[in-house]
Amino acid sequence: MDSASSRLSMRSRLRHAFHAGMALPPGTEPHLAGALRDTLQHPGSMVRAELAYRIASSLGMSDERSENLAIAIEYFHTASLLFDDLPAMDDARVRRGAPCAHQVYGEGAAILAALALINRAYSLVWKSVAGLPAEVQAGSLTYLERHLGIAGLLNGQSQDLHYAGLAPQLREPQSIAMGKTVSLIRLALVLPAMVAQARAEETRLLDRLAVFWGLSYQTLDDLKDVLPSSDVHGKTAARDAFLDRPNLTLTIGIAESFDRVDRLMKLAGRAIARLEKRHVRLAFLREVGVQFKKEIANLSEASLTRAS
To answer: What is the mean pLDDT of each run of 10 residues along the chain (308 residues)?
Structure first.
C-alpha cells in the first residue's frame, strides 16, 4: 500500500472511530441523542486526531493505543466547540456547515452532549495509558489536566469571554491564545509523545512546534473572522468585534497578521527539521506546514479581493 493510500485508510479509520466511539444506548433522551448524533456526523478536519495518531504510532505505540488517544483528543476539542457556540459564550449559529447543536436541540442538550464527549474522552485516555509504567501514566495525566484545566484551556476561555473587562496589561490576544488554542494543540502533539515515552528532546521540540502552530492557527482564525467568505471554515464570522473578544488581526492589522503567521511558520519549519533528524518517521509533520501555506494563500486572496 502506497503512502497516499495508507493516509486515506488511516483517515477513514479515524472518522469511523470518531463516529462509533460514542455509542448511544437505547433509551437515550431524544434531545441529547440528537445533539450527539449530529455532532458525531460532522467531525470537521480531525487534524488534531490525525496528528496525535501519527505521532503516537511513529514513536512505537500500538494502533489501538494510538487510536484511543487520538479520538480522545478529538472529543475534547469537539466538546470545547459545543461550549464555545453557546449563547453564553460566542452565541454562534453555524458550525462545520451545519446549525449549532444548541440551535436545534437546545442549550441543555448541547451542554450535556459536550459533557458526554469529555467523559468518553477520559475513558479513552485511560485505555491508552493502561499498563504503562506508573511514572508515564502520572506524567501524561498530569499534563492533560494542566492543559485542559484552570491553568490552560479553561482560563484562556474565561479570559476570552471577559476580555472587555480585563485590566489593560492583560488584554493581550497572544497570551490568551496560549491558553485557549495552544493548549489543545499541545495535547495533539506533546501528549502522544509522552504516552509513547519519547526522548526528552523530542518532547521539547514538539512542545515548541505546538506553540508555533497554535499561535499560527489562532491568527488564521482571527483573519477568518475579519475576512468572512463563502468557504467551508464552518463557523459564524465577524463575531469578535461584535462581542469585543480578543482578535490579533483587529489589533495589529491584516498585513501584519499575515507577516506574523509567516514568521511563526518559519520557526515551525526549523523545529520540524530538527525533529526529522532525530526521528525520520516524524517527517510527516511537514505535510501540515503545506496545508497551512495553502490556507494562508486562500486567505491572502480573500484579503486582496476585499481590498479591491
So the answer is: 71 93 93 96 91 95 96 97 93 89 97 98 97 97 96 90 82 84 95 96 96 91 75 53 73 87 93 93 88 78 62
pLDDT on residue 305: 63
Kindly report the CATH class assigned to 3-21+29-307: mainly alpha
For the chain, what are the domain ranges?
3-21+29-307
Distance, CA of 225 to CA of 296 (rounded, Å): 14
Strands 98-99 and 94-95 come out as antiparallel
Per DSSP, what are the bridge partners of residue 99? 94
The conformation of residue 72, written as its DSSP 8-state character, comes to H
76-100 CB burial, b ≥16 within 10 A, e <16 = bbbbbbbbbbbeeebebeebbeeeb
Asked whether 191 and 144 are in contact (CB, 8 A), the reply is yes
**Model pTM score:** 0.89
Q: How many CB atoms lie within 10 A of CB 139?
A: 17
Q: How many CA atoms lie within 13 A of 23 on its CB side?
A: 2
Q: Is the dihedral of CA 171, 263, 227, 186 positive or negative?
A: negative
